[in-house]
Amino acid sequence: FASIALFGSLILLPIYGQNVLGFSVLESGLVLLPGGLLMGFLGPVVGRLVDQRGARFVLVPGVIVAALALWSMALLSDTSTIWQVLASHIGLSIGLAGTFTPLFSVSLGSLPGRLASHGSATLSTVQQVGGAAGTALFVTVMTVVSTAAAGSPDAVDAHALAAGTRAAFMIGGLAMTIGAFIAPFVTEVPKPSEAAQARN
User: Fold this and answer.
1) Cβ(75)–Cβ(24) below 8 Å
2) Positive or negative CA dihedral for 102, 107, 111, 116?
3) Distance (Å, whole) CA 118 – CA 143
4) How far apart are CA 53 and CA 57, in angstroms?
């Protein structure tokens, strides 16, 4: 769900910015820059919190913040400002920073050392598949709803495209809301001891 939200929003926000709000290519890229930088800077901070307080302490609020950010994106229209888009994306980035790190920590931390490389490969694959699915889902929903709102593919304008964008972000918000209900059930499995690993 987190990968769907991340990659779906990364592909959709520039399309929305350029074709609905009239941003230049540079402006669209700069809108995404602060959130991306913030997500990178928060990685070590979130990692320390996970070590000190446990994964769910960060994961649950992280998923909730990401869900709220996506629902706020579902409110964007053809009259929204660049600051609204920027604030929504920063909120999403903060939420996802609090989502990926604890999930990866719990997932890989539950494996014996000999399986760590397999776990890392599996996580990477799942993230890429989720990202591809998110991109396809967001763009498909945006296209179908925009076309329906305009009446025909040739009549799609900024207003219709904004309606399609809102619908796509509603799907993302729904996905992360489901993730918010799942997050409290994520448990940290004690890492197997060296003796147990040797027996296995």
Assistant:
1) no
2) negative
3) 37
4) 6
Q: Is 88 exposed, middle or buried (0-12, 13-18, 19+ CB in 10 A)?
A: buried
Cα 28 to chain center, whole Å? Answer: 18
The tally of CA atoms less than 13 A away on the side-chain side of residue 31 is 27
Distances (CA, A) of 58 to 41, 55, 117, 169: 15, 6, 25, 24
Alpha-carbon 198 to chain mean position: 38
Question: Mind listing the pLDDT tens digit of every residue in the chain (200 residues)?
Answer: 888 888 888 888 998 989 888 888 888 888 889 998 998 899 889 988 988 888 889 999 999 999 999 999 999 888 888 899 999 999 999 999 999 888 888 888 888 888 888 888 998 898 889 888 888 989 999 999 999 888 877 778 888 888 999 999 998 899 899 989 999 988 877 655 544 554 55
> Residue 191 carries which DSSP code?
P
Q: What is the 3-state secondary structure (H, E, C) of 8-21?
A: HHHHHHHHHHHHCC
